[in-house]
Every structure is written in C-alpha cells, then in structure tokens.
Design a protein that fits this description.
The structure holds 3 protein chains of 3 kinds.
Chain A: H1 2-32, H2 39-59, H3 65-92, H4 101-122, E1 127-128, E2 136-142, E3 145-150, H5 151-173, H6 175-185, H7 187-192, H8 197-223, E4 225-226, H9 230-245, H10 250-270, H11 276-290
Helix pairs in contact in A: 1-5, 1-8, 1-9, 1-10, 2-3, 2-4, 2-8, 2-9, 3-8, 5-6, 5-8, 6-8, 9-10, 9-11, 10-11
Chain B: H1 6-13, H2 19-40, E1 43-47, E2 53-57, H3 59-83, H4 94-121, H5 126-151, H6 160-177, H7 181-200, H8 208-228, H9 230-233, H10 259-263, H11 270-296, H12 298-308, H13 310-315, H14 320-346, H15 356-369, H16 374-390, H17 395-412, E3 420-421, E4 433-434
Antiparallel strand pairs in B: 1-2, 3-4
Helix pairs in contact in B: 2-3, 5-11, 5-12, 5-14, 5-15, 5-16, 6-7, 6-8, 6-14, 7-14, 11-12, 11-14, 12-14, 15-16
Chain C: E1 5-16, E2 19-30, E3 34-38, H1 45-52, E4 60-66, E5 72-74, H2 81-85, E6 89-91, H3 104-111, H4 113-119, H5 124-127, H6 131-150, H7 166-178, E7 184-188, H8 196-213, E8 216-220, H9 224-230, E9 233-238, E10 241-246, H10 248-252, H11 255-262, H12 266-275
Parallel strand pairs in C: 3-8, 3-9, 6-7, 7-8
Antiparallel strand pairs in C: 1-2, 1-4, 4-5, 9-10
The chains are: A mainly alpha, B mainly alpha, C alpha/beta.
Chain lengths: 304, 443, 277
C-alpha cells in the first residue's frame, strides 16, 4: 500500500510537469488548429536555459536557494518565451493561410532545428546537475518501506498550481484571454472587431513556451539532468495528455497531464519500465479513436 | 496653382521601404538573436571527468552568430524586395513554357536511361554505386509513401514502421529458417501490408493532424517494441549475419558454384554491388509501374477522389473504409519490400535505422516532389539524399540544415517541385491540372 | 398516400442535443415524378436530406425506399456509402462537392466506381489488362461522354472540374450523380446561384432526366420559378414540421405557406391576399 502511495506521489509530480507542457499544446491547437510539433523541444530548451543559468549563478557565489530559483525561473521563462515567439514568427505565421500540411511539416522541421541546435551548441552528452534542493518529509514508515515527499516534489506541485491559477485567471478575466477565446472561435470575425489576431496568436505561443520553460526547470530540478533529446518523447506524452483532457481545454490539459503521469509511473512500477513509453503512445491511439474530444472537451458535429 | 497631387505623394510613400527600415529590422533580429543565443551559444557546459558540470564562455562565437543574423536579415530583406512576396504570379513567356513542356516529357526517359547506365559508367567507383543504391532505396520509399500521402491524402508520419517490419521479417526469417531472399521478399511485403491494415483500422475516422500524430505514435511503438523484445529481435544489438541475395539461387561468391565461375569471368566484389543496384532499381520500377497502373484503375481513382473530397465519395457509394485500408496496405507493402532489400544490402540491421527521422525524411521527399507526381518524388529523393551526402563530415549539422530546409520549403513552395497533376484518363487532350486546384487531403 | 411512392418518409424526427430539427415529418415522393421540398431557411430541409442519404442517423421514424421491382429498403438502417451503392439513392450538395483537382471526365468515372471495381476483378483483372476490363472501361467512358454531352460539357471534358464556371459545375455534379444510375436523385438547391438562363437549362435537364432515365427526383430549392415549372408535388416545411403539401398551384395559393415565407401570421397573409389580388 505504501509502495502504491509513493508511486502516487511520484505520478502526480511527473503529471504536473506533463500538464505544464500540455497547456502549451492545447492553447495553440485551440487557437490556430495546429499541433506544434516543436513545443516539446521548447520544453527541452527551457531545461537547458535553466541549467546554464543555475551554473552561472552558482559560480558567481550566490547561495541563497530561493533567490537562485526565482532568478532562474524568470530568466528561463523569459528567454524560452522568446524562443517560442521566434519559432512562431519564422515558421508558422507565414504559413497561416497555406494548406494544411504546411505548418505541420514546418513544425517538424523546426523541431529538428531546435534538437540539433542544442546538440551542436551544448554537446551531445547528457548534462547532470547535483541536487539543488534536498530534503523532504517522511510521511509514513512501516516494514522497512518509507513513503517520502521530497521538498522538490512539493515545489513542483505548488509551482504548477500557482501557475495554473494565474493562467486560468488570465484566460477568463483579462482582455488578452478574451481575445484568445475570440480567435479560437472565429479569427476573421475577431479581426473585424478589432482584435489584433497576430499579436494574440503570438502571445499564445509565448505563454505556452513560458509554461514549458517552467516544466523544463522543474524537470531539471527533479531528475537532475537534461539532454537534447528529451523534448521528443516528453512532447508526445504531453500532447497525449492534452488530447486526453480535451484539446482546447486548459483544465483538461492539466487533468490529462496528471493522468498520464500517474499511468506512466504506475505502469513502470507494476508492469515494466521498458515499455512505459509504449503505454503512453498506446493511450494516445486509444483516446483518439474512442474519445477524440477527450474528457473535458466539446463534441463536434460534422457539417455536410 | 498650388495643387499638390496626392497620388504622387502616396505613391512615393508606398515605395519600397528604404535603408532605414531594413536597418531597423536587422537590428531587431540581431537583438532577438543575442538574447536567444546568449546562454545557449555564449556559454558552453560540459560534464567534467569527475561528473561535475563546468562551463566556459564563447563570446566570440556568440558575436559571430549575432553578426550573421544581422547580415542575413539584411540579405533576406533585400531579396524579398527584389523577388517580390512569396506566391507572386509570374507570367512565363510561351516560348519558355513550350520549352519546359518538352523538357518535362523528355526528362523521365533520360533519367531512366542514365540510371541504367550508372553501374556501367561508374563501375569502379564503389562510392557512387553505394550512393546510387541509397538514392534508389529512398526513391522506392518515396513512391510507396506517395500512394498513402500523395494519392489518398492520408497523412502518415510513421512510414518507417513498415520499412522496419519488412527488414526484420527478412532478417529473422533468413537467419532463423534459412529461407532465401526471393521467398522472403513477398512475405515481407505481405507482412508489411498486414501491418498497414492494422494501422489503418484505428485511424479511419481521424483527420489531418490527429491522423498524423497517431501514425507517428504507431511508428514509435514499433521501434520501441523492436528495441525491447530482445528475445525476438535482438534488441538494440539488432540482427547480424543476414544473408546476401542470390541470383535465384546462384550465389555471388568467388566459390565454384558462384555466378562468376558459371559465367566464366573473374570474380570481383563489385559484382554484388552492381547486382544490388539493379535489384533495387527493379524493385523501384515495380513500385512505379504498379502505382501508375493503379492510378488508372478504379481503386487508384478512388484514392485520389478520397483526397479531393471524402464526403462526396461516400455519397457516390464508395466504401471509404476499404479505400483507406487498401491505400495503407499498398503503401506499407512497398515499404516492406524496400525494408527487405535494406536488410539484405546491409547484412545487419538495428533499431537505430528506423527512427522518426526516417519517416520525416521520406515524407519530406514526397512533399518536395509534389504530391502524387512520380517524377517529382524521384527528383526530390535525388536532391535530398544527394544533399545529405554533401554533409559528410558535417553530420552534426545535417539535421539542423534539413529542418531549416523543410521550413523554407514550406514557405516557398509548399506544393513541391512538380506543380501539376496528370489526369488518368482523357478524351481529347492530356492537360495537366495546376496543383492549386488539387486538394491535399484532410486525412 | 395511394400513389406509387418510391420513398415514404414516416414520422421522421431528428434531434441534435436539445434542438429538434425535424419533427414528425411524413410525406411521400412519387415514382418517376419530381417532388420539391421547400421552406424558409432553417426549416430543416437539408437535415431531411442528410437523413435520407445516410449522413445523419434519424432519431426516429422510417424512410422506406421501394424499388421498381418491389424491393423495399429501410434507409435509416443503412449508412453512408451503402445508401448510394445498395439503395441507389444519389445526391448533390448545397455547396458543390466536385473533385476539383480531377477533370470533368474523371469525376464521372469516379461515380462509376462500384461497377468498374467489379469489372476490374477487384483490381486484379485490371492490373493484368484483361479484355473484359478494357471493355468495361470503354463502356464507362461512353456513359460519361453521354452525360457530358447532355450537359453540354463534352468540349471541356479534360478541364479540371475546379476550373469550370459555376453553372457548369452544378450541372456536372448532377451528371456525376446520374452516372451512379440511381433510382432516386436528391438535389440540394441545384439552382442556387444560377441566373435565369442557367435555371431554365437546369429545369430542362431535370425534366429530361425524369422523362428518359426513369429516375425519381427529390429536390430542395429556393428558386420558385424552377419549383413551379418542374415539380409534380411540393412539400412545404417550416421549423422542422410539414405545414403544407400539394401541387405547385395549391402551394402557391396556400396562406399558411405565404405566412411562413413572409414571417407573418396566417391571418395577416389571408388579409394581404384578399386585399391585393
């Protein structure tokens, strides 16, 4: 039972990270109707930026952990958001009115560019980092097995909850959020009513990228390493999460993320670690066949 | 009179943006580049020998990159002004048009003849022959995927799965049961076609991006299963000792029962390479011939109609389910045949050869070729694989350039090299249909 | 309904969530006659079509199709392509759905897919070029040529369908539907966007189809000149229910119908009619 509880905790933490990435996928799909294949690699870039910022700050002699974390968070969010903005401007905006296949292939191309770019820029080897946040709480102890809740796990979950709250408020209450929802429904009409569609779409990518950056930083803190290929698999899993929760739905993305994280962790713990990715991909296929609108999405009727 | 002509004023203002605009744009691009590259390029991390992560700065590289972006931005702006916006219609003079039409009709037979002569001309240059085999393999893969993506309009991002199934079928059948290549070849095709149907069933109702990502997931699942099912596939170590093909039982070895001995000529290892070259050429031409014939048959026309408008197909009584499944199965079969060839050529296969990059490469070839056009796909394969070869020694940049090429290709010429579709039946004259009219399919 | 109806719609109901688009609709389309389904926008006409042609599954009711040989088929039990293939019901669409990247001839050849598939031995005979296949293909091309000539597009047979002028596209869509050799032809606003001359040509085409091909026609139309000229029977819908049916003359003078189109009350319509004419 305690083994299960530990896996539950681990699954929720992993799920939070997936959820943060999934929000980016779902927001972009909702507003421009494309799967941003490069989004997983934005997450990877976020991890790298966080890593490098950490190194620099630590080498300057900064030791106060909360301050370091805050600075790294802001820096990686800002720079990764800029990456997201740039990718949209270069690879997607010119193709907005092109035919269906074009933005998708462009996104795949951009994904290759980002992966290879970080491989060339930072070398192909995995970058390990000593644990920055240590310690935790023992929740339960019996029969030699310990259920632990580590500090880093607490931080990940709290950060996720806070960010989710902020962005839910943003989408529901602010002008930008309203513009986003308008563009999701009808871009032409929104434009006619004075919404700056280009800017709104850009901001959607920027926000998605910023959240992916946070996910990258959390991943770095939690697993202690980054490598240039982590974006590919994480990206597909996060997209699965977005679809599972209902594409276009913000709470759905987070719900989907948690579910995927739990399923992956429990599967690895009780069945086999090697096939955990297969499990995630299979879920994607199953969801898209049997429940294409996801758990919290709205069903679409085909117009003839 | 002091009447200013507003027309003249506004036309002056609407003139091509001046140097100040270009400079400002370049400056902004450079600033963005500075921020983007500041940490990733400006700082280089590496895990030291003791596992500790260290870093050093590379401000020189950073400055160089930012300067390149600055300069490149200026160049791009100037090009854009000179060339006009993307998609500008250019009037081609009729003399050029008729010349191009002539060239178009002649290019296929010329190319084919040249291909047949390659082993003759380059008999002693192993490198060229190997490159030729590689190009032909991708031409065949491109023609195979063309059935699914180009003709039927079904977005398949997991084509490498069928390639892998074909390769592993032959490898395992040959190493475990000793079956000859010529028996295993059709078996590989059938197995791959079966997998194509397996993939087709779940994705029948999916469209566009969703279809694409499910096929991608399928491809990845196949690869992961291959890696992890070690008892069957040998896992990451792959399968070794795959037998080379024989000329219908006559081996190509220096032994006394070898082909060289039978023909009474001196044995040379080049024989096998030439044999492999003509083998893949034959397989590719088979793919081509079958595809062209199928296009003229109701099934091929149904594939293209499916791409154009699926709802109308259903209203005409066409069973879209079987149409999609046959498209997947046929494309998969050709992928499987190519995979079997790949296994016999290499003598050794491992899961590393069957990654998503391969699927993306073949898809890029099909799209670059101009979906549905056989000649276009062949030319695109030549350009892409040839281009890849130029990057020997610069392999770490290859994916980067490939990715950028894909982005640029989509911006500049999303419908591919060949800008038209040839009709399959005509009454009076065979006129090509501009690719603007041809739909790309929604799933 | 004592007349010989090829299609009997009985108590057809279609619900989308909370909205009832078609409510307990019953009418009959007579064999070898032209039946028009009219009504203001949003009346549910295209929904009825989509139920008949298998794109929607009706929430309730029955759609009975009776072939010339007496065979009866319940359309609500078939779905999509089977309705065209087995029940021999063909349709055109409100927003033309041709295959724009294929030539006019190719469009008509696609319509003959099922017959050709059989003749090509599920492709295998065709692959080896068997003579039986060649004959079948020639026959299909001849049928296509016949229809192209009927609609005056023989000269443009090799032009891309997407390049044809609008009126020609409409007629090509009808010809394509006819190439499936249907028993019932359902046309969704075939005269939409056509000028007077083109509408007259369309009327002539539909009348000739009824006369020469033994097909029954069910059409949705807003163009009253076409409806009045060619229909044998008219069914009027509003808000998902049938409000009137009869001959074109009866419909034209029915105050309920006038009221529906004007958006007014029946009493008002009667008052206007009595004061005016």
């Amino acid at each position: 039972m305690d083994y299960f509880a530990q896996q539950l905790i681990n699954g929720i933490v992993l799920g939070s990270i997936y959820g943060l990435i999934a929000i980016g996928y779902t927001m972009v799909y909702g507003i421009v109707g494309m799967i941003n294949f490069a989004h997983g690699d934005i997450f990877m870039i976020g991890g790298f930026i966080a890593l490098i910022s950490f190194l620099i700050l630590v080498s300057f002699g900064l030791t106060v952990v909360p301050v370091i974390l805050l600075i790294v968070l802001l820096v990686s969010m800002a720079i990764t958001a800029l990456y997201g903005w740039t990718v949209e401007r270069i690879a997607y905006r010119p193709l907005r009115h092109s035919f269906r296949l074009a933005p998708m292939l462009s996104a795949i191309g951009m994904s290759f560019v980002l992966t290879n770019y970080s491989q060339v820029a930072q070398g192909a080897r995995v970058k390990p980092v000593p644990p920055i946040i240590t310690g935790g709480y023992t929740l339960y102890e019996a029969d030699g097995f310990v259920v632990r809740l580590s500090n880093i796990q607490i931080i990940v979950v709290i950060t996720t909850v806070v960010l989710l709250a902020i962005f839910t408020w943003l989408v529901a209450r602010t002008r930008l959020g309203r513009d986003m929802r308008a563009c999701e429904q009808d871009q032409t009409m929104a434009a006619l009513l004075g919404v700056d569609v280009d800017r709104t779409i850009s901001m959607t990518f920027v926000i998605g990228a910023a959240l992916a950056a946070v996910a990258g930083m959390m991943y770095l803190l939690y697993y202690g390493l980054v490598d240039f290929f982590m974006g590919f698999v994480a990206g597909i899993k996060a997209f699965t999460a977005a679809v599972l929760g209902g594409i276009g739905s913000l709470p759905g993305a987070m719900l989907g993320g948690l579910l995927i994280g739990l399923i992956e962790t429990l599967w690895s713990a009780y069945f086999s670690v090697e096939y955990k990715d297969v499990a995630a991909f299979s879920i994607l296929i199953v969801v898209l066949i049997f429940l294409p609108t996801g758990l919290l999405g709205r069903p679409e009727v085909e117009k003839v | 009179m002091g009447v200013t002509t507003p027309a003249a004023h506004s036309s002056a203002a609407a003139q091509a943006p001046g140097a100040a605009f270009i400079f400002k744009k370049a400056l902004i691009s450079a600033l963005v580049a500075l921020v983007l590259f500041s940490l990733m390029i400006g700082v280089r991390t590496e895990a030291g020998s003791d596992g500790q992560l260290t870093y050093w700065t590379r401000f020189g590289d950073l400055a160089a990159m930012v300067a390149t972006v600055f300069g490149g931005s200026i160049v791009v702006e100037l090009l854009r002004q000179w060339w006009g916006p993307v998609g500008t219609v250019r009037i081609v003079p009729p003399s050029v048009q008729s010349g191009l039409a002539l060239a178009r009709r002649g290019i296929a037979p010329v190319l084919l003849t040249l291909t047949f002569l390659v082993p003759v001309i380059f008999y002693n240059e192993r490198y060229i022959l190997d490159l030729g085999i590689l190009v032909l393999t991708y031409v065949m893969l491109g023609w195979g995927l063309n059935v699914v993506v180009g003709l039927a309009g079904l977005l398949d991002l997991g084509y490498v799965a069928f390639y892998a199934v074909g390769a592993y079928s032959y490898a395992l059948l040959a190493t475990n049961f000793g079956l000859s290549f010529w028996i295993c070849l059709p078996l590989a095709g059938i197995l791959a076609a079966f997998c194509g149907v397996l993939l087709g069933f779940p994705v029948l109702r999916l469209r566009g991006d969703y279809l694409a990502i499910v096929t991608l997931a399928f491809g990845e699942i196949i690869r992961l299963v291959i890696i992890n099912w070690q008892s069957l596939t040998g896992g990451p170590n792959g399968v070794t000792g795959i037998p080379r093909p024989t000329l219908f039982g006559i081996p190509l070895t220096p032994a006394d029962d070898g082909l060289a001995a039978l023909l009474g000529i001196e044995f040379s290892p080049t024989h096998r390479i030439v044999f492999l070259f003509y083998l893949i050429l034959a397989l590719a031409l088979l793919t081509n011939w079958v595809t062209i014939r199928l296009r003229r048959l109701p099934i091929g026309r149904a594939w293209e109609a499916l791409r154009e408008d699926e709802v109308a197909c259903r209203a005409l009584g066409i069973n879209t389910t079987t149409t999609k499944l046959t498209a997947f199965a046929t494309g998969a079969m050709f992928g499987g045949l190519a995979g079997a060839f790949f296994a016999t050529r290499q003598g050794f296969i491992s899961p590393e050869s069957f990654t998503f990059h391969e699927s993306a490469l073949v898809l890029a070839i099909v799209v670059l070729g101009g979906m549905g056009s056989q000649l276009g796909v062949a030319l695109a394969a030549l350009v892409m694989i040839g281009g890849f070869e130029l990057f020997r020694g610069l392999e770490q940049f290859r994916m980067l350039v490939f990715g950028l090429a894909m982005v640029l290709l989509m911006i500049w010429r999303p419908r591919g090299l060949i800008g038209h579709r040839a009709p399959t039946v005509f009454l009076h004259h065979n006129q090509a249909i501009s690719s603007d009219l041809v739909k790309e399919g929604h799933g | 309904m004592s007349a010989d109806c090829i299609l009997n719609v009985d108590h057809l109901t279609m619900r989308f969530g909370g909205i009832v688009a078609v409510n307990d609709l019953s009418f009959g389309a007579e064999r070898n006659k032209i039946t028009a389904l009219i009504g203001p926008n949003g009346a549910g006409k295209t929904t009825v079509f989509n139920c008949i042609t298998g794109f929607y599954k009706p929430s309730g009711g029955s759609l009975k199709l009776t072939h010339d040989d007496g065979r009866k088929i319940q359309l609500e039990r078939l779905n999509d392509f089977r309705i065209s293939k087995q029940a021999k019901v063909a349709r055109t669409f409100q927003n033309i759905r041709l295959f724009p990247g294929m030539t006019a001839l190719e469009n008509l050849m696609v319509a003959q897919h099922n017959a050709l598939m059989l003749a090509s031995g599920l492709t295998f005979l065709g692959l080896i070029g068997a003579p039986s296949w060649r004959t079948a293909e020639k026959r299909a091309i001849d049928l296509s040529k016949l229809w192209l000539e009927r609609i005056g597009l023989l000269e443009r047979a090799d032009d891309a369908a997407g390049n044809l002028p609008y009126g020609d596209q409409r007629r090509l869509e009808i010809a394509r539907a006819m190439c499936t050799e249907p028993a019932l032809l359902c046309l969704d606003e075939p005269a939409a966007g056509l000028n007077a001359r083109e509408s007259a040509a369309l009327s002539e085409l539909l009348l000739s189809i009824r006369a020469e091909h033994g097909a029954s026609i069910l059409l949705i139309e807003h163009d009253m000149s076409v409806v009045m000229e060619i229909s044998d029977h008219v069914v009027v819908m509003d808000y998902g229910v049938k409000i009137s049916e009869g001959t074109p003359q009866q419909i034209r003078d029915d105050p309920k119908v006038i009221a529906a189109y004007l958006g007014a009350d029946e009493e008002e319509a009667i008052a206007v009619m009595e004061s005016g004419t």
